[in-house]
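Lab notebook, design round three. We kept the backbone fixed and only want residue identities now. Task for the bench partner: fill in a sequence for the structure below.
Input structure tokens:
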């Protein structure tokens, strides 16, 4: 399955919803346990290249405060942060910080040790997230669980395993980050960049974005402009 196939599954859910079937889960149309090749940069909604770059810059700063996002901080980040702006989910911190055992370079080291191995895993979340997600009033339970890297046939491929993924803003922004990381792994291992397989436990479209599915069903257009 690829991104186009996933759109088709959401279109089917939307049709069922419109026909009165009870397919909503907590105000979303949801697909459980999907696995698809992330062969397009967005599922629904046009890319916001400016925001993607700002979020990437923030990730690379490793700051755990949303007020350090360059430019205007998106409301969603302020919603999940504590009163002082602190969160758990700066992916640059999780991947490059010694505090989190330098996950990405640890995965790269595993490829160097055993090029055809299966231990090159970068772990994003942690067992303690069950008690840390709501510290000091925040609401930030890390969405990405882990990413496995596999070097095969001169290419390195990524398998992204997610706890939860918004199919509109979440997918396109997270995919941009994962593409950046895969390019880094490929460079550091002397490989070509391969495919990204996306495996979210839950991938969903919120009710406020159902109109994007409707527009896609009626026109075939999926890259409607939206701001983060």
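Proposed sequence:
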């Amino acid at each position: 399955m690829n991104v186009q196939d996933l759109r088709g599954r959401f279109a089917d859910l939307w049709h069922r919803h419109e026909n009165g079937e009870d397919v909503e889960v907590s105000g979303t149309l949801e697909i459980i346990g999907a696995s698809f090749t992330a062969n397009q940069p967005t599922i629904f909604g046009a890319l916001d290249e400016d925001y993607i770059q700002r979020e990437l810059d923030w990730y690379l700063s490793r700051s755990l405060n949303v007020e350090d996002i360059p430019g205007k901080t998106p409301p969603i980040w302020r919603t999940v942060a504590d009163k002082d702006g602190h969160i758990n989910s700066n992916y640059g911190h999780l991947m490059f910080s010694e505090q989190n055992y330098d996950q990405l370079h640890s995965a790269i080291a595993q490829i160097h040790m055993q090029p055809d191995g299966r231990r090159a895993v970068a772990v994003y979340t942690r067992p303690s997230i069950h008690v840390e997600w709501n510290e000091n009033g925040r609401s930030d339970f890390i969405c990405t669980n882990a990413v496995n890297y596999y070097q095969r046939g001169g290419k390195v491929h990524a398998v992204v395993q997610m706890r939860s993924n918004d199919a509109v803003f979440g997918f396109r922004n997270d995919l941009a980050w994962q593409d950046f990381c895969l390019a880094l792994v490929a460079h550091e291992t002397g490989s070509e960049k391969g495919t990204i397989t996306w495996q979210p436990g839950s991938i969903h479209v919120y009710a406020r974005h159902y109109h994007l599915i409707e527009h896609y069903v009626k026109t075939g257009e999926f890259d409607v402009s939206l701001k983060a």
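Keep this in mind before ordering anything: The domain at 3-219 is CATH 3.30.572.10 (Thymidylate Synthase; Chain A).
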